[in-house]
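Hi P.,

Sorry for the delay on this. The queue was packed all week, but I finally got your sequence through. Input first:
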Amino acid sequence: MPDGTRKDRSPRYQGTGFAKGSESDLSEVKLKKGEPVDRALRRLKKKVDREGTLKEVRGHRHYEKPSERRRRKMKVARFSAMLSARYADV
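Then the structure:
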């Protein structure tokens, strides 16, 4: 830019709410005093699983057409409706 200032965001990230290199979405687990690393790693894995981070990342591996997305969601809805009907009287 002519006045020496730089644009903070590229057009690619405008309107997404994320700046390039944004770390606001990262899951974080603080290591407690005297806590083994494997226990903290287990807590991190549970947190990532609850947030659905890996599921979202795997979903972005390839493009899914809107019709495929609708078909997948309908399949999940049918399955959960079947389960709720099966266990409704229990």
